[in-house]
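Lab notebook: predicted structure, single chain.

Context: the supervisor wants predicted structures on file for every construct in the current expression panel, including those that have not yet been purified. This is the next one on the list. No modifications to the sequence; it matches the entry in the shared construct table.
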Amino acid sequence: MNLPIPLLEVKNLKVDFHVSHGGLFRRQHSVLRAVADVSFHIKSGETLGLVGESGCGKSTTARAVLQLIKPTGGAVEFDGVNLVALKKETLRKARKNFQMIFQDPYASLNPRMTVGDIVAEPLKNFGVAKGKALEREVQDLLQRVGLNPRYIRRYPHEFSGGQRQRIGIARALALKPKLIVADEPVSALDVSIQAQILNLLLDLKGQFQLTYLFIAHDLAVVRHVSDHIAVMYYGKIVETAPSEEIYENPKHPYTQALLAASPIPDPEKEKSRRLQYQPLMGDVPSLMKPVPGCPFHTRCPYTMPVCKEVLPPLKEYTPGHKTACHLLEK
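Prediction complete. Output recorded below exactly as produced.
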């Protein structure tokens, strides 16, 4: 029996940046590997939550998936087509099917354009609608994201942070894409507004039959929107499993530390979890000086000699649950 092709399949993705450093007369050039051999897939209609600390490579992965930056290696297959191999014009046409919601709702909106023009721009670029039909389409999109359709003549500075993010969501939905990459879409918002935006994204997922790649640094945020979760550290995926499995049975010490750092409203459960899991200590090592072996060994409370020498493979130790950790080999 042939299994259905995932809507998005990322295979061995690598992203390198060339960095110059040193003095004027002793200029040196190094290669910084921001994403190292990352693989995952998302089935149509599902949400994958990509979680990790700032600087772990989440946003770089997102931009490489959408070809906003070119990967150094690997493949990004969307609907069976490798986006990395597409030529410029073919890729431009393919972009209609995947869009992005950015972290900063103000920086992602042109302050000189009205809300109506911002949402209408992708529709104009692809010749989807014009004239009165275009205006009606824009008003409908604003209404779907919870904004008054009469606001089309206003400018971004006239809105609150949550309203601006709704405008960004409306723009992302304009071409009715199959996939939306949401890069920290609620991290810049107040807690009460975060809940509203998360609920909106869940509602829109059903209305538009969307598939999400949802990026966040807080495991508590992605729990309610994700079907599967991939935990990323130092440019690599260290654990992946169904959402509830990650919360109920985290296997990697880094995942456990992220859970311990995510507050929950029940004081007793919060105390129990903090006693159960070791808190995260220290800082992420510099990508300019790659760490041998497991990259987490410099912060892990369970480090063994093998951790300092051998990079653990991402292996499936229980059905559907993959982890990269030498502790599980004991």
